[in-house]
Queue: 4 jobs
Job 1
Amino acid sequence: MGAEHLSVQTLRRLPRYLGFLRSLPAGVAHVSATQMAAALGLGEVAVRKDLAAVCNGGRPRTGYPVKRLTGDIHKLLVCREPACFAIVGMGRLGRALAGYPGFAEYGLHLAAVFDEDPALIGSAVGPRPILPSATVAAACRENGIGIGLITVPPEAAQDVCDALVAGGVRVIWNFAPAHLAAPPDVTVQHENMAASLGLLSRHLADEFTKETENGERGKQG
Amino acid sequence: MGAEHLSVQTLRRLPRYLGFLRSLPAGVAHVSATQMAAALGLGEVAVRKDLAAVCNGGRPRTGYPVKRLTGDIHKLLVCREPACFAIVGMGRLGRALAGYPGFAEYGLHLAAVFDEDPALIGSAVGPRPILPSATVAAACRENGIGIGLITVPPEAAQDVCDALVAGGVRVIWNFAPAHLAAPPDVTVQHENMAASLGLLSRHLADEFTKETENGERGKQG
DNA sequence: TAGATTGTTAATCGATTAACAATC
DNA sequence: TAGATTGTTAATCGATTAACAATC
């Protein structure tokens, strides 16, 4: 219990804890924050605090019971009633996301997929028929879809955004590298894969600079 | 100039500034932090600070010259010599990433793509031939590839990770929902799309709770 | 008992926000 | 001059880290 308020950072780490716990051999009954931190490459204290906030089954010297900890984290991640989402744009990225595993794991349900191309309408992506983009607003409203993913080319993104908003969607995850205008009560999260990779690359360069500045001193193989 | 040190958060926002600047009609010569903040839905002061850190062409009452600001941000994002990266796993997600637009924009070059399936070897993704996964380590080392993207099924992710590390890759972006073990000098960033969407969904739920708690008071249409 | 581990309380760090002086 | 906007300096906020007492 104790779900009072978890920081965004903690929430981001929970799935990784869950993944680690599930990767444990069946025989392991207990696990400590120390072990998890080492395995996941995270700070020991951070992990301990996260676990303490999430599960009250921890005992000194013993650690946490795997089963209970797993259950508690899982409960926290799913917790609410399933949220329905839609994907607009059945190109490669849209299809990849539609087939991405584990949405149910997080209480998410892919309720509809859309594309503009008449040639695609009616064909299926997994078990789902592709619906025409023109029906986005109506379909979202009908199915109580609150979340929309945009995976269309940048030129088409704003129109799709407008349609989603018209359909009552309140959260938009935009994969098109385009700037979108939306009313203030709609949350738009922009995902720019190229930019994200650029940031990672810069991280690499910075690390390297640091190392060479240190003259490779203090490096333990 | 003044590229001393930009915070990660600032670096994350820069691409959005760039996108906004490029979306401006050709006639607009100057733009203020106030305008950009409003358009992008960001805090006014945050934007002002970011711009001040990035470009010294700002003038009171006038704002920033669009051309110079665009150039300075662009320079900052590319700045270093191009970084080579590889993608292992030519499923839907791998192909989507391979075709994602704008990597060059951030000084990134997709140098090689790999897959395990013998039926795919030799066929092309865009201009690039798919190479066999067995050659990952050698190919990375030969081509000076420092960054690897993993888009294989979770079961195969650890092997791919090992191969990349063996090939000298120092930064890994892992899209498989799997926990990876890597040496401490290798940075592994985990991307779990389902978990990220779950977090967004939770955000939606929290917002909604807040609103209803406020009894919808103070909402201005 | 001894020692590892939990969980809490205080200190540090980084980023955002607020306040305000400088300037075109 | 007046007023909008920049850029800086101080205050707030949140998260991480460090220190330590509690406990099995």
Note: Residues 215-221 of chain A have pLDDT under 50 and may be disordered.
Job 2
Amino acid sequence: MVNKTDEVLRQFSGYIIKRAFNVIQADLNSTLKPLGLRMTSYSVLSVIASTAGLRQSQLADALSIERPNVVQLIDELEVAGWITRNRDPSDRRAWVLTSTQAGRDLFRRATIAVQDHDARLTAGISDTQRQVLIDALMTIEANGQKGETNVPVTIPKP
Amino acid sequence: MVNKTDEVLRQFSGYIIKRAFNVIQADLNSTLKPLGLRMTSYSVLSVIASTAGLRQSQLADALSIERPNVVQLIDELEVAGWITRNRDPSDRRAWVLTSTQAGRDLFRRATIAVQDHDARLTAGISDTQRQVLIDALMTIEANGQKGETNVPVTIPKP
DNA sequence: TATTGTTATACTCTATAACTATA
DNA sequence: TATAGTTATAGAGTATAACAATA
């Protein structure tokens, strides 16, 4: 039965996204906890493990995280021995981020867990619906960034 | 052009939702700021203004906010004169939340701003796609709440 | 001058344990 | 004993200003 409260919330799409996101984050964080990762640190590790020659500023852009907040995330992964920081010889202001073998092994195991989590939470959603979901979310993100000064990472439609 | 970083992120649907949500929250908060509201306080006001005889625990359930966190949100709205707390005569432990005239006026104006924000961010998304988006997000939320007591999956070492 | 990374800091949201007063 | 609300607190994410080193 749909009561008035539900009606109100259904018209407020931002709040529906918020609630879905909270559920995803909580589930993913408990999924990753045994591996020593959280949603954010997993996403950082995944970008570093998948991209050669990555700088912190590029990482920040790729994940839409502010640069100051990237610092402590990187520190965390470096202390754990999953990535290394090396001076970029062509620009001594910058650090090049590289995953270690241990970092890549962890990323591989974590990805299996993340895929399982993803399958669990998207159960009952068809591939077509899933594609609409992803496209719609990317449209929303792009619409929101239209009025901003910074240029987001471009992710083209398939 | 699709680089490897983009590919990785596209397979990680939780992160796409996260980024869309961050954009929505930032846009909505700046939309509501001139009215003295934030995303969360607007959602609280909207439920109170739309539901008669509401208790704090019901509000917490409706918005999936923990009860302790509801307290300060309510305090905020009460101090501003937008809602009142009244003892429930049938259960003296509980408070009944009621919006004031000022609260309802604010809610009406805020809703116009929120609808404008919503239309701006969902531009380019058809009604059909929007319905798929909402349904998919609600499915995800429901899937996540199924195994509330869930134990993380054990991941085999490679 | 501008950019990369950094420090410091502040605000918001979320989550849990433990308390009180009522039931 | 159970529930409604509360207090205190801790953790995480996000955002901005200001700085040093380098370009």
Note: Chain A touches chain B through 74 residues (CB under 8 Å).
Job 3
Amino acid sequence: MDLHLAYPDIFSRADAATLTMLMGPRQELRPRQRIARANVPMCQSIYLEQGFAARYRLDRTGRRQFLSLHVPGDFIDLPSLVLGSIDHDIDSVGTVVLRGIAHGDLGRLMAEHPPLMRNLWRISLMDAAVHRYWIFRIGRLPGRARVANFFCEMLIRQYARGLCSTQRFELPLTQTDLGEACGITPVHANRMLGELRADGICDFADGEVEVHDLPALIRTGHFSWDYLYLPSEIDGALRQQLSAGALRAAAQGMR
Amino acid sequence: MDLHLAYPDIFSRADAATLTMLMGPRQELRPRQRIARANVPMCQSIYLEQGFAARYRLDRTGRRQFLSLHVPGDFIDLPSLVLGSIDHDIDSVGTVVLRGIAHGDLGRLMAEHPPLMRNLWRISLMDAAVHRYWIFRIGRLPGRARVANFFCEMLIRQYARGLCSTQRFELPLTQTDLGEACGITPVHANRMLGELRADGICDFADGEVEVHDLPALIRTGHFSWDYLYLPSEIDGALRQQLSAGALRAAAQGMR
DNA sequence: CGCGGAGTTGAACGCATTCAAGTCTTGTGG
DNA sequence: CCACAAGACTTGAATGCGTTCAACTCCGCG
């Protein structure tokens, strides 16, 4: 995943090329490896070229709560660039490919080229909007809607990068991981998945979600994607797909 | 609350003075008034000179989920400076005093004085760290611990600004608001407060929290403040207070 | 072959919600 | 000045969603 493709409205091709020049070598990590550690001073930020990565905090009993889940193409660990370190751990979820960018290089580049700083800031703010939506999801939605809502986010974030269609997307989590993302137990996650499957809404297996009825998934999850700040073309494409799907469904219903 | 006092490690006295020059007139709002609206283009950011303000999202049934609660001295609505608008509403909680800073003025100032941008970015990142901790609180802690944990955050954020001692602090919320912050019902919030009171830990009434046993409050809330990125003097002062309190408690226990 | 992790399912329990009633305070209008 | 309405707080009782405990299957791997 190339930086310009990942953030088309943030990095021009030229900016993306400059940043890519500064990146260190590709580094592959296996599942459940530590990417960044809490309270350890960092000297580089990380670009998640392939794969998924989870930020999480442990509770007293040692169980994880995911704080966010990064999808391929995310520029992660920007907080450490400005704050020096982070307050939580980040692990790979599934196999990942990372590339580091030294804080020093980024600092020099931002000094020469100030708009870059604003662009990176913008990415941080979009991440923060996602954090806030997670608070809403976990605080207000019942388990079934939580899972559906989470799937919607993962679908649309990947769709926006051209990584999937609206029928199927990658999500290399175990059911336990899914529970840790949604704040429910693995057993309950399993049951909610069973319901979504039985209702013909979607099917989660083998690290993939197959979406059978996207409008129903969105409805069940009480989802709206206003918080994702999608480029307007993508937003338009999505709306079109959905209304086309609705028309098709209505036509089928009329037969 | 002066900007330098609110962010001593971010804004020097000189920077704070410059920014304060740009601020519009003080504006007082009564409780539960709209400060910023979702999806409406903003042309100014807001400094919360006095009082409390809540970001929230409504669920389908019209109930609010707080996404964050700003305390006096917070620079709020920085997201709108970079993103243009926000995806949720912000209301006053209790009476507030606001001062606006035009995005245009901020933009010019950042252009002349690049370090300022990094400092504002830093504030955004500290806010994001708080968001993440809210996910943890709501996702992993049972009701009683959630309330205690939330109180700890409110205490320490205000303590760090010199707004309170560790014995008592302002929190002009109703029990319903508290429930909306912690993701529980008003009735349950009431019961958890009753337990904390009965256990001699703290007492929440009339918009104030009286802390009777801070170590117990922290323990009950499974709280740690690593995510608040406090200036080291403040962090040190807090640790000292706590260990002094523990020693005093131990001495009393030995009598 | 046997181990361990992931997924599945049943049953009992319990935390939190919901519904409901009642108190108290505050502010407003008769 | 009092009556009354509205909102905040409190408490009880019933319900139910989600957790916990437990058993069992399936699959990949040593």
Note: The mean pLDDT of chain B is 94.
Job 4
Amino acid sequence: MPELPEVETVRRSLEPHLVGARIADVDVRERRLRRPIQADIAVRLRRRCVQSIERRGKYLLFALDGPDTMLVHLGMSGALELRATAAACAPHDHVLLHLDGGRTLVFNDPRRFGLLRVAPRAALVELAAVGPDALGEEWPAARLKVLARGRRLSIKNLLMDQRGLGGLGNIYVNEILFRAGIRPRRAAASLRGREFEALAVALRAVLAEAVRLGGSSISDFRDGEGRPGYFQLHLAVYDRAGKPCRNCETAIRRVVVGGRSSFYCPRCQR
DNA sequence: ATATGCACCTGTGTGC
DNA sequence: TGCACACAGGTGCATA
């Protein structure tokens, strides 16, 4: 579920409730995530106060009032949910942070591809693999061109590589390439100047619109307060194989690029 | 160094 | 109804 717009939506929904809140107790019900939950996580989090919530790519960083920062990645199926009480656990509630005042922040993740780790910020090695944020920074055509220079992979795989720019996933790369009129299998280095220009415009437009609409609730995405997003109603190509292009009526095609389903309009995208 | 394929998990939808 | 299979928003590792 979560790419940049969904993670940013979660961040914004939690920020007003969590900044200033203190963690009273920690309940770990399942340690086996992408990396095992640290043995000392409760010691590190207990009595700590959240000072800010930042986002870098698809990672959330909860700065605490001690030496540590809590790093969270939602993987494919993860969710952070603020509950009014320390209510009975739902399936796949893996980590519960009980807050002063009675509310609980729950990390739920059926597939367990997510990550939750607490350490000094400089020790969060996962962040070393994430490039500058796709929305938090300016990405003019020239900067995208630099990323593509000398690379032999497809433009889709280039945009999905978190080391280049952080935050894009399969949904939004498909949507951005549609908006820019570029087929996902095009070699990144083969793009023309005006195509990089179109890509730069599409990148910002699609992400900004998706954030404005609270992300995409394809099956079950919800923000920290349980609210769905609405960008799924605006998807032009993702998961629309065989359906008419919203622009020209041509049937949307599905191909596999880099092992992932990719969707494009054969007429609007070249 | 760069690019690709697959494994890691559970849930859901589809066809037989 | 039950079963087998394909597929799903991501990432990391092994292999060419």
Note: Strands of chain A lie at 23-28, 50-56, 59-64, 68-73, 79-83, 93-99, 104-108, 115-120, 253-257, 260-264.
